[in-house]
Request: fold
Amino acid sequence: MLKAFIAVGIFLTANSAPSYIPLVVPAQQEAPAYAKWGQLAINETKSKYPNASIIDYLHEGRESKQDSTIEKFKLWLKDGDHEFGVFVRIEFTTDTEEVINIKMQETSR
Reply:
């Protein structure tokens, strides 16, 4: 949720009435819970595809298992004229957040 702080600026000039201009200042936004895993997914993808540019990123959700969690991402890459997707699955121990496995799979769509 984006929060904003709204203030009213009052400007006075010679021979004129006060002007009121609303100022909108965005409040600090909290990072989503999956942000650190998304950064890991991006870093691993950059490592595997060093010549490609990541042009899109999607968090597909989270899957909970007995003692582990899987964060699921889809990244869209461009390498020259070739565009393709990469599914990244990061499995980690739920309690300690220790990475168990990272799986990557290319897709054409």
The longest strand covers residues 53-64. The chain is about 15% helix and 55% strand. Confidence is low (pLDDT under 50) at residues 1-13, 15-23. The domain at 35-107 is CATH 3.10.450.390 (Nuclear Transport Factor 2; Chain: A,).
